[in-house]
Amino acid sequence: MSLVLLALACSTHPPEAHDAGHAAGHDAGAQAKHGAEHGHGEHGTAHHSFDDPEKWAEVFDAPDRDRWQEPEKVVKAMRILDGMVVADIGAGTGYFNAHLAKAVGDKGRVLALDIEPKLVEHMKARAARENTPQVEVREVKPQDPDLPRESVDRVLLVDTYHHLQDRPEYFARLSRSMKRGGVLAIVDLRKDAPFGPPAEERLEPAQITAELGGAWNLVATEELRHQYVLLYEVVK
Question: Is the pTM above the cut of 0.85?
Answer without folding.
Answer: no
